[in-house]
């Protein structure tokens, strides 16, 4: 039987990045993916004939430029198409439309508030500085503050020096971002309600928190740090859907020598004498390896595949306390025509960006209020895109695909049965909410796909349907992700590593966890290698 240097569990984008870097370093790597398609939640699937959906993750921005460069992803077919702006319809017939053209956005904001137009420049400069401070940390193995390991101490010193080099105002902003709510932070800059509501939406994605909950300001920054071709704060579509990103990384991994198998589910990680020695597949087959690298979440990795009998008791408790709390759903629509918004009728460039149902801070907070008591929001926050306007290859001629990210949809419903009982009603609620702003939407829907948090868990292996493999809250960041003392991609089981979004720096189509874990594995296994 062939023995591998590394087995990577999960063919999501982080697992594929991990495999690609390890294979480029000369390791014999095997990637095992449970589903028939690579990508995890970054997949493109033809759900209805002729309509290709980015079923789960649907936009790209956080993918690290160094990964694109080092794996030469454009040569493997990756092409990012720009997503221009965010359009927010308002109930009074007005709208807010921010675009990538800074001067136009300033004029648009000035329609609502001249004060906010001036503040928008200062806010942008401050967030760029905060992004620059955080950016090097994304590629860092988090230090253990309780350890005297020299590398960790050097990293702590590096962070301290960088913080001290900030201006007093930037230091103040950085502390606020780590502790304040998105709305409280934005209140310091802006007065326009719809502007604050739409901007604060980035602070709640993937969390079971409201826009007024402390800690959401950091999530705001997490999503602000995206860049495309060096352009900071840029978002886009992958031509062919987000699956094209995963396929490009997979092709780079194969070219480097990695072997990738789909429809191959792992049921158990083999542990011998406290060390990982391979995996057992769901069909009973054994595959051995010197190292196992898991890109699936801590619940699946430790509680299901490893087993608590092989783990320290305090670590098991930390894993059980780790918060997932999935809070979002997805509705994918096949359309016969384009939606027509009351506030800005017709087919225009506003449909080529994101369309955000976030008309006020009160609207956003009321959506969260319902979720707190175990009910999905009856008037939810919805982020919509129509990628077929930018990439016609994903829909038949004259038709369109529309992706709707929805919050809140709590994993644990407190009344009226399970998500299987509420799936269609949830879909109806989303369509009804859109129809308040685009009345023709119900007449142009050809097909719809509804994904509840339970569906996300079942389909993509994301515990409780959390799209980031665990909330991006302050107690689950940096050297606390996924557990105190175990944020360095290693685990209590020797030769078992974590390389998914449950590790630093977290979720989104970023690839940094996979790359960082590969660097750690290569350093740890360097002895005895040429």
What does this structure look like?
The structure is a single chain. The protein has 530 residues and is an alpha/beta fold. The two termini are 24 Å apart. The strands form 5 sheets. Strands 1, 2, 11, 12, 13, 14 and 20 form a 7-stranded mixed sheet that branches. Strands 7-6-16-17-18-15-19 form a 7-stranded mixed sheet, sandwiched between helices. The protein has a two-stranded antiparallel ribbon with strand order 3-4. The protein has 3 domains: 4-41 and 61-77 and 240-323 and 466-524, 3-Layer(bba) Sandwich (FAD/NAD(P)-binding domain); 98-236, no CATH class; 324-460. The radius of gyration is 23 Å and the shape is globular. A hairpin with a 2-residue loop joins strand 12 and strand 13 (275-281). It has helices at 13-24, 65-70, 102-112, 114-138, 150-165, 168-179, 182-187, 193-200, 216-224, 243-255, 298-306, 313-321, 361-372, 419-435, 441-444, 453-460, 512-524, and strands at 4-9, 29-32, 44-48, 51-54, 80-82, 86-89, 95-98, 227-228, 231-232, 236-238, 259-261, 266-272, 275-281, 286-294, 328-335, 354-357, 381-385, 400-407, 445-451, 496-498. Helix 1 (13-24) packs parallel to helix 17 and helix 3 (102-112) crosses helix 4 (114-138).
């Amino acid at each position: 039987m062939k023995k591998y240097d590394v087995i990577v569990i999960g063919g999501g984008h982080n697992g594929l990045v991990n495999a690609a870097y390890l294979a480029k370093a000369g390791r014999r790597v095997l990637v095992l993916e449970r589903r028939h398609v690579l990508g995890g939640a970054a997949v493109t699937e033809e759900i209805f004939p002729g309509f290709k959906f980015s079923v789960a993750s649907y936009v790209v921005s956080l993918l690290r430029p160094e990964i694109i460069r080092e794996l030469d992803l454009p040569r493997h077919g990756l092409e990012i198409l720009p997503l221009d702006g965010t359009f927010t319809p308002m109930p009074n017939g007005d709208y807010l439309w921010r675009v990538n053209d800074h001067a136009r956005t300033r004029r648009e904001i000035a329609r609502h508030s001249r004060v906010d137009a001036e503040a928008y420049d200062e806010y942008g400069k401050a967030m760029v500085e905060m992004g620059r401070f955080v950016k090097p940390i994304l590629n860092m193995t988090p230090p253990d503050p309780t350890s005297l390991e020299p590398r960790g101490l050097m990293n702590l010193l590096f962070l301290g020096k960088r913080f001290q080099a900030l201006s007093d105002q930037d230091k103040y902003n950085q502390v606020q971002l780590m502790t304040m709510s998105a709305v409280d932070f934005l209140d310091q800059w802006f007065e326009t309600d719809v502007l604050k509501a739409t901007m604060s939406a980035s602070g709640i994605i993937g969390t079971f928190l409201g826009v007024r909950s402390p800690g959401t300001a950091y999530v705001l920054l997490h999503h602000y740090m995206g860049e495309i071709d060096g352009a900071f704060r840029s978002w886009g579509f992958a031509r062919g859907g987000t699956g094209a990103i995963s396929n490009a990384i997979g092709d780079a991994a194969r070219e480097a020598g990695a072997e990738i198998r789909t429809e191959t589910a792992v049921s158990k990680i083999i542990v011998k004498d406290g060390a990982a020695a391979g995996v057992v597949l769901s069909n009973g087959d054994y595959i051995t390896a010197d190292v196992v690298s898991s890109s699936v979440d801590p619940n699946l990795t430790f509680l299901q595949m490893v087993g608590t009998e092989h783990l320290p008791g305090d670590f098991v408790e930390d894993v059980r306390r780790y918060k997932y709390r999935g809070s979002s759903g997805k509705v994918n629509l096949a359309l016969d025509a384009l939606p027509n918004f009351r506030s800005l009728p017709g087919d225009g460039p506003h449909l080529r960006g994101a369309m955000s149902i976030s008309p006020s801070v009160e609207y956003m907070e009321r959506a969260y209020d319902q979720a707190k008591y175990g009910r999905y929001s009856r008037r939810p926050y919805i982020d919509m895109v129509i990628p077929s306007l930018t990439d016609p290859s994903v829909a038949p001629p004259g038709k369109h695909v529309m992706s709707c990210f929805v919050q809140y949809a709590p994993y644990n419903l407190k009344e009226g049965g399970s998500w299987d009982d509420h799936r269609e009603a949830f879909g109806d609620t989303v369509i009804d909410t859109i129809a308040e702003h685009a009345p023709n939407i119900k007449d142009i829907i050809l097909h719809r796909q509804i994904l509840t948090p339970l569906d996300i868990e079942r389909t993509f292996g994301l515990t409780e349907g959390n799209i980031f493999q665990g909330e991006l809250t302050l107690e689950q960041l940096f050297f606390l992700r996924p557990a105190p003392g175990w944020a360095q991609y290693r685990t209590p089981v020797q030769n078992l590593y974590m390389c998914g979004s449950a590790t630093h720096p977290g979720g989104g189509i970023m690839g940094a966890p996979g790359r960082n874990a590969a660097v750690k594995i290569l350093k740890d296994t360097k002895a005895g290698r040429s």
